[in-house]
Amino acid sequence: MSLNHAQAEAVAYDRGPCMVLAGPGSGKTLTIARRIEYLIQKYKVRPEEILVITFTKYAACEMRDRFRKIAGAKGNGVTFGTFHGIYYGILKWAYGSRDFQLLKDVEKLELIRQAMQEIGWEESREAEEEKDRLKELAIEIGNVKNRGMNIEDYHPAHIPAERFASLYREYEGQKWKCGRIDFEDMLLLCRELFQKRSDLLKVWQEKFRYILVDEFQDINQVQYDVIRMLAAPENNLFVVGDDDQSIYGFRGARPGIMQKFCADYPQAKRILLDRNYRSTGNIVRSSLRVIENNQERYKKNLRADAGAGETVHVQEVKDPQEESRYVAEEIGKRLEEKVKYSEIAVLYRTSLDARTLSETLSEYQIPFVMKEQIQNIYDHFIGMDLISYFQLALGNRERKHFLQVANRPKRYIGREAMTGNTISYETIRNFYCDKEWMMDRIDQWEWDMKMLKNKSPFAAIQYIRKSIGYDEFLKEYAAYRGIGADELFSVLEEIQQSAREYPTMEAWLAHIDEYGKALKEQKRPDLTQDRVKLMTMHGAKGLEFDTVFVIHGNEGCIPYKKAKLETEIEEERRLFYVAMTRAKNKLVISYVKEKNGKDADPSRFVEELFLV
Q1: Residue-wise over 75-96: b if at least 16 C-beta within 10 A, else e?
Q2: Contact (Cβ atoms closer than 8 angstroms) between residue 104 and residue 130
Q3: Distance between CA 349 and CA 534 in Å, rounded?
Q4: 605 with 290: CB under 8 angstroms?
Q5: 460 is in an annotated binding site
Q6: Could you report the per-residue pLDDT of 300-356, keeping only the tens digit for each?
Q7: Is 29 annotated as a binding residue?
């Protein structure tokens, strides 16, 4: 494949620092691979002196394979790796027999939980909510290290600073006590090694005289510090990235580091790869119209190599149910136009946004695969409660269903009143035969189940909520557990809205069973199969598809409801830009007018598409 002018200029760059701004679909992988070949053949650099770093093992292997197809055996000896892999290798080389035992993610979360208990930071939460909280704290701990900051100077986004500092110190103490390190420690230990041992640093500087960094926009401060030390004194540092695609702030990545590169290296060459070989002109222009609203970025004039193509379509729909049906029907139309399932992707901000869509695709028998797992909403205790009520209404007498809802709402019925594999209301009455006041409660429960029997699922849930008193139970449950009632009602509303599609309880329960089976098939996703790809915007980074649907283009979804600061909003806009630029030929963005019975507004990013 021939190179365009900008690519050829980057490939042939000789010595010293160089920053290549590579827009979406601009052929950066080819450029890096050809650059390595040029160094070896034209400038006679020994392959062993070249280090190529990227952020994932997959990307490193892909880059290595792409290069070997070009250079063949001549390229043997070039080192390809991730930041963590390279730095870990340096530490093992320097410390020899010292055993660096890495904490697994689950072990790290457990240490954080223990640290919370030690400092008296107790929170009464549901299991899923506690897990999310622990992950949030793990991100904050990682941020302190990735930015190379002292804990005293760090200000967490959503946690009181003093409280977080206490947790951080306790976590660090417990971690070192058990002789373990986390991923961020590897970076800090490598930086510390080079700062203290200039003789060891010199060994590695002489080994890797030419350093190439892919996806440079994803670099954090400590990684950058170590790379700068490694590249000195020759500073043959060739970095490729796009500040508009910097979307990993939770890992310490900041687009400001790319801008700082030119300040740190005033003599650095700057090259813009401005031709997009992936997307049509309308997709390129529309995505630029959004990202140009960010202030912290390099200005870029990008152009599409292809023609104008279809205009970007923005679709307003009533609610998530209508949105999912719209997407399913549009997928059907693309199939008629000979687009394969595997060339279609549906992107969303968080995996929770995919729940309704995944149900609808199952119903339409459209094969799909999910890159990230989502929790089956019917496995939530609210879903299990409703299923048990429906089973009882249909005459199922299994003990588990009685136990599930006997006291939701409170009826003061004990487990000892429900023994054996099958239960009847009469056996419960017999148990409480000496308590006249309990008879009325049991009679009412049985009467309510008879009232439910012939209702539609939607109407039955409404009866459970208002007549049986389930809404009041949820409010009391939330208050007792110290959790947000709004989150519980959001789950309940979502289930009720999805039930509207089914005429009978039997049909709804059959759907739940089929949906559960479909989700189980996603446990080990095979992204090579001919299936529609469902993934978060983060998960779509680096991928491309003929057709892309971006769903839930609403305020509170994208930008995410927790994004408040301007820097956070700008990162959310970059994330939306990444989602848009995954599309080659067709891009559809949809937003809902209401969600869970509440009005919803289109995202500010969607509105920016219409600004001239």
Answers
A1: beebbbbbbbebbbebbeebee
A2: no
A3: 11
A4: yes
A5: no
A6: 999 999 899 999 999 999 999 999 999 999 999 999 999 999 999 999 998 888 888
A7: yes
**Does the annotation flag 27 for ligand binding?**
yes
d(CA 428, CA 1): 78
Judge contact between 464 and 386, C-beta under 8 A.
yes
Question: What Å distances lie between residue 145 and 136, 183, 192, 554, CA to CA?
Answer: 15, 10, 12, 33
| Annotated binding residue 23 | yes
Look at residue 23 and tell me whether its pLDDT is greater than 90.
yes
Does the annotation flag 309 for ligand binding? no
**124 is annotated as contributing to ligand binding:** no
The fraction of the chain above a pLDDT of 90, given in percent, is: 62
- Quick one: 3 exposed, middle or buried, by C-beta within 10 A (0-12, 13-18, 19+)? middle
406 is annotated as contributing to ligand binding = no
- Ramachandran bin of 296, using left for φ above 0, alpha for ψ from -120 to 50, beta for the remaining angles: beta
383 is in an annotated binding site: no
Q: How far apart are CA 555 and CA 196, in angstroms?
A: 49
At residue 370, the 3 state secondary structure works out as strand
- Using DSSP, state whether 72 is helix, strand or coil: helix
One-letter amino acid at 501 equals: E
The tokens 């205790």 sit on which residue?
381
- Compute CA distances 123 → 9, 95, 116, 323, whole Å: 57, 41, 9, 37
Q: What is the pTM of this model?
A: 0.83
**Strand 532-536 with 368-370, pairing:** parallel
Tokens of 23: 């827009």
211 three-class SS: strand
288 Cβ partners below 8 Å, 6+ apart?
A: 300, 302
Residue 417: count of CB within 10 angstroms of its CB: 18
- For residue 30, is pLDDT > 70? yes
